[in-house]
Amino acid sequence: MFDDLTDLYQQVILEHAKSPRNFRVMEDATCVANGTNPLCGDNYTVYLKMDGDVVKDASFQGSGCAISKASASLLTAAIKGKTRADVELLFDKVQNMVTTGEADESVGKLAAFAGVHKFPARVKCAILSWHAAKSAAQGIAETVSTEEPAE
Amino acid sequence: MESVSESTPPARETAIDWAAYRKDFPILDQQVHGHPLVYLDNAATSQKPRAVIDSLVRYYERDNANVHRGIHELSNRSTDAFEAARKRAARFINAPAPEEIVFTRGATEAINLVASAWGNANLKAGDVILLTEMEHHSNIVPWQLLAEKTGAILRYLPITADEHILDLSKLDEVLTDDVKLFSMVHISNALGVVNPVAELCEAARKKGVVTLVDAAQSAGHCPLDVQEIGCDFLVVSGHKMCAPTGIGFLFGRAERLNRMPPYHGGGEMIATVDYFKSTWNQIPHKFEAGTPDISGPIALHVAMDYLDKIGRENLFKHDKELSQYAYDRLAEVSGCRLYGPKQGRAGLVSFMLDDVHAHDVVTIADRYGVALRGGHHCTQPLMKKLGVPSTARASFYFYNTHAEVDRLIDVVHEIKKFFGS
């Protein structure tokens, strides 16, 4: 009866939410971006150390629900060693996956988030840190929000 | 887990069979994700009884016409029903006169009306607008907009650190001579605190301070008497008290409303219109520009009759009993943190489970058919004050039962198990 719940909260997600990886402030980060969801108070900072075009190191800090925290944790692991273009490509794949449920083979462990698509209200949780990481990789140091504030 | 329909509520002192009212609410009789719906999000919006739903259909099938304009039969019927609703609203809060009721889209629009029409005409730079630390965004942001325009300053009556009730010992300190308006919530949607609004309004009145009471959470839950409260303005949302969304009203003392400029311009609010100058209609029409929501007030009328047939004293007692029961049972759950007063709370409970985020709590509860609210409840400054990003909230109405609270507690244990906390 709760298949979709265990689809959403897969073991890997619960585990990363409980013990997030790369969960630290990076003092020597070259790019930093903040991701916030004003509707639920989720707030994450993603730190990247870029070496030219390549992500040498990635970490994050902040608080939020299990989905958003696990997503940030898995993200930092997934983008290490990737180029800017790779990060953007992966962003597109993750976004497509959490909205359609179709996981590209190349996403690896991130496939755990495919179940999110059955919970439309939680898509923003899963994609929040990805928005921040994309901004950071592009060198745009600003707060990205799930809600677009009016100018 | 035992399903709701199989459990019997424990015997209570009150003789009213509250579960029997559930039959009046078609929506409550359904399964959600394979479980009986347990609707505990009444502070966001209440469900609507059959009588209210039927009144909308009846109006559009038989009486629909524009109000205050026509000579024909249907227009007369619509106008009569619309104005009867106004009289009923006045009676609902014991307003001295029906002209003191202005229909709005809800409490939010009513506050914006006062902030705009009264505020712009009466506030100048340096004047203080006093609020409380437990206000909903709807009773903060309109005043911020007004302050930006006029140079007025916002100030807040603080809440206590332990039970999150208003710290009345600080009232004299904040209610100084430069305060021009004191706007306060009656029942907090995030904490369940019932504020002593009559006492606060009396203190304000003694200093010549204009008062507004946000009764969005209280109007449909407890008896309200604006003369006893002694406020200048009071705002109500219909959808939290069995009426449709998009209808509510502002009560304003006639002497205040009469001296206020209009809010919106258009038809209905005018007496005469010239190409270059117009004069205004009498209150309340001065504040009701354009064709209003007509079926809304008519359905609200039915909702008010429905609630008063039950008796708001009875209803409030049941609300409080359920929320106390929920509070006491949640307090027994290890790792459950509760917010607001330990006793005397209105019909809602805000809580956190260990370090499980409110959205995770609400997502799991939903799969068991239990509808909760998780988030900041449109009280971001208050959440910051409480030191939490969000809470989970169960809010009750008269059709909720003790068995549903039991169900909530069972689900809370399932959530704890799920997250291994």
Summed up:
The complex is a heterodimer of chains A (151) and B (421). Chain A has helices at residues 3-8, 11-18, 66-79, 84-100, 123-137; strands at 31-37, 42-51, 54-63, 143-145.
Task: Chart the SSEs and their pairings.
The complex is a heterodimer of chains A (151) and B (421).
Chain A: H1 3-8, H2 11-18, E1 31-37, E2 42-51, E3 54-63, H3 66-79, H4 84-100, H5 123-137, E4 143-145
Parallel strand pairs in A: 1-4
Antiparallel strand pairs in A: 1-2, 2-3
Helix pairs in contact in A: 2-3, 3-5, 4-5
Chain B: E1 31-32, E2 35-36, E3 38-39, H1 50-63, H2 73-92, E4 101-104, H3 107-122, E5 128-132, H4 141-150, E6 153-157, H5 171-174, E7 179-185, H6 197-206, E8 210-214, H7 226-229, E9 233-237, E10 248-252, H8 254-259, E11 270-273, E12 278-280, H9 295-310, H10 312-331, E13 336-339, E14 348-353, H11 358-367, E15 370-371, E16 373-375, H12 380-386, E17 391-395, H13 402-418
Parallel strand pairs in B: 3-15, 5-6, 5-7, 7-8, 8-9
Antiparallel strand pairs in B: 1-2, 4-10, 9-10, 11-12, 13-14, 14-17, 16-17
Helix pairs in contact in B: 1-9, 2-9, 3-4, 10-13
